[in-house]
Amino acid sequence: MKHLVMIHGRSQQEKDAGELKQTWMNALKDGMEKANLDASLLDETKIHFPYYGDTLVGMMNEVADPAPVVIKGASDAGSREAEFTMKLMTEMLRKNGVSDDAIKLELANGDATQVVQQKGPLNWPWVLAGLRVLERLKAGSWAVSTFTHDVWVYLENAVIREKINAGVREAYYGEPTVFLSHSLGTIVAYAVLKSEQAKDWKVPTLITLGSPLGIETVWSHVKPVDFPACMGKWFNGRDDHDTVALYPLTPTPFEATEITEKSTIKNTSDNHHGIESYLADPDVAKWIHDAIQD
Questions:
Q1: In this predicted model, what pLDDT tens digit does every residue of 36-83 receive, in sequence order?
Q2: Domains and CATH numbers, the chain
Q3: In sequence order, what E strands does the chain have?
Q4: pTM score
């Protein structure tokens, strides 16, 4: 089989890398069984799992006051992170059908006669009210807020970004390699494969699951949006109710990119975003199975 690199998402700190890899493997084998595929071709010596969970959190802890601003809801509202978070939250609220009127009502604690502040990047009560509405919709507001912070740190902190990217690059051994990524890991995979260091790599397939790359607030930070030169095929899978993968990657922002999309995956995790449900999908399992065959 070809080499397979698995790139995990956020909130994986203080976990055992071997156990995480095995969780992915078990879910993938389950998906292959559902698709009536032979999982015996999986050679674990060719499956690489670059673990950066502790790296991300450890380096963030070295940054002054790294706590998510939406959670503390206080002093840093004028920062660039605050503006980024506000834009991202606005897209999440819109995608989940949360109207401005619904947030105003939440701000007024159910009393529509109360005067409430208007929406704006300096109005964290507005964002927090939106998170509470998302929570009632089972959209996982805490996960959304912490995810937003981790994405911001990766995109904006060049030192942290390069440390993580360098670790992922070490998982490539110069032979044809399939990249499989989830959540924040899809941003990492895309950044690595677009980089100058990867221009001569042999990557027949990239598979992204639960990817936030379709969100304008995210893809506007990775422009130009294009197809990495080292890649062959690109498959993207998502649950339409995924709290992070709000939109498919085509037709926008990847208009000129041929990506095979599946947005009908039924992810049974609480926030429709868990990796195990994605890997257990028969079509996703077949994408991986077919891609890694010699």
A1: 999 999 999 999 998 876 555 555 455 544 333 333 333 443 467 777
A2: 3-60+158-292 (3.40.50.1820), 69-154 (no CATH)
A3: 3-7, 47-48, 177-182, 203-209, 231-237, 260-262
A4: 0.83
